[in-house]
Design goal:
mainly alpha; 14 helices; globular
Length: about 260
């Protein structure tokens, strides 16, 4: 049985742009002691996006994000043995022979992640994955217009019949992109930053923090609230650990 009545009140409050008195590692330790097996499986699904991101870091020979499910050693073994990850991960990677090609088209693996995971989830996780996919696509469309990129090419791994993708493609020939309701404020906030990538990163991080908090309509003592806390804590930790250069790199990675 999950012990939300201990776990939730034990977690300190989070504030965007401020240091937190708890680490993601500590939250995971407390979760392991208090959550049910079924709830812990949801946490594994939540962290799988970081595992997939870490495949990219591994190919780049960069340090992986330690907040995923897998350590660097476990990640190496999973890729070697074709284990742990869902089959679609290996099907995608096997399409390309070289590390260069895998990295060049890695955005396709993120697209597959959302396409496969969203239908499997419910509650907060379903809404969270949908939100993460949608704001990234909206920002991709905005930046593609700014940089004069072919938006159809940038969306090559997406389902063109998807409503948001179709909405973006319908504006392919226009000079600017107007996002759908719910993401108009994202565009406004992004454009208000001018050309400063560090200011863009901070502004988007604050916006995401607030939006994720609004995705939970269940009480404090629920797995949805715990997962929302974890998602917002990731943003807080990233904010505190990044400098201006790394912030720009992370922003670029979001939409690459």
């Amino acid at each position: 049985m999950a012990n939300y009545y201990f776990l939730a009140p034990s977690l300190p409050s989070l504030a965007r742009g401020e240091k937190c008195d708890i680490s993601f590692e500590e939250v995971m330790f407390r979760a392991s002691l208090n959550l049910s097996k079924r709830d812990l499986e949801k946490v594994v699904s939540f962290r799988r996006y970081m595992d997939i991101s870490n495949i990219r870091f591994l190919f780049l020979e960069e340090s992986i994000d330690p907040r995923g499910n897998l350590s660097e050693k476990d990640l190496d073994e999973a890729l070697l043995l074709k284990d742990v990850f869902p089959e679609y991960v290996f099907d995608f990677l096997d399409q390309y022979d070289s590390i260069f090609q895998k990295l060049r088209y890695f955005s396709g693996l993120f697209a597959l992640f959302f396409r496969n995971e969203i239908p499997l989830q419910e509650g907060f996780l379903k809404e969270y994955f949908r939100f993460e996919r949608e704001w990234k696509l909206v920002l991709l469309a905005i930046k593609a217009k700014e940089m004069g990129r072919d938006i159809a090419y940038e969306l090559q791994f997406e389902d063109f019949s998807d409503p948001l993708v179709a909405q973006i493609l319908a504006q392919k020939e226009q000079d600017r992109y107007d996002p759908p309701e719910g993401y108009v404020d994202l565009k406004e906030k992004y454009l208000s930053c001018g050309k400063d990538p560090w200011e863009q990163y901070k502004t988007i991080a604050k916006w995401r923090f607030d939006k994720i908090g609004q995705l939970v309509d269940k009480p404090l003592f629920s797995i949805d609230w715990i997962l929302s806390y974890m998602a917002r804590l990731l943003i807080v930790e990233d904010w505190n650990e990044l400098d201006e250069t790394k912030g720009k790199m992370m922003l670029d990675a979001f939409v690459s």
